[in-house]
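We store chain and fold; example below:
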Amino acid sequence: MTLKKPKYCGQNWLDMIPTENGRICGGCQKEIFDFSKKSFAEIKEIQEANNNALCAMYPKDVIANWNSTKPIQKFNSLNAILAVSTLIATSGQAISQEIPKTEENTEQVATDVEMILPLPTNTIDSIYATIEGQVTTLGEGGKLEFLPFAKISLKNHHIQTQADSSGRYKIEIKIDQYQQIPEQMHVECVDYRKFALVFDSIPRGKTTFDPQLTRSSDDIINYYVEEPTKWKRFQWKIRKLFSRKKQ
């Protein structure tokens, strides 16, 4: 059985916030899975287990040879670029000392952690962060409708609430509850697919987010973003290095 080919999405993988399974798209807030190291047979098995609903990052050759299970030989032609990258990294020791980096965090975009303000010390029971909004779904004819009584939870902070009859919800995190850790906000409702939003850390203050759920029986269209080449990864790292230096 053939697997339906995903549609192309123009979002940049490198600009997305990393997660355990891949990255979060800044355009739609969906988790984009990283399939760069998986064979097409593995991808097919995962997608079929998830109703072919996962958006993902695929290598160009997998997309070009969709539904082909033959292994694809890759030729590495960028050793010179890697050598230049190493030379710049060693010669820019002063910059690296000012902005410590690891192989893992040099690919991460600026996170919410940088925007967190110092905690006040005089009001122990004050609110650190608020997340609120309205849960919606697409009704007949593509009309946006509110979805009442959905369950909203912050997995790692162990906080849960329920939307009211008009789909509105509010989650408040007090200072003594707050933890500077990655967080997953889950939105669930009977007969609808669960929605998950991943925060690198909860931003301080008020955040408005209106999750849109889809019925479990809907035919979901999944999308793909291309795997960045080594040259694009190199350019992105240099751009991030100098943009942080200017701040």
Observations:
- The radius of gyration is 21 Å.
- The chain has five helices and 16 strands.
- Residues 1-69+80-109+222-247 form one domain.
- Residues 192 and 216 are 5 Å apart (CA to CA).
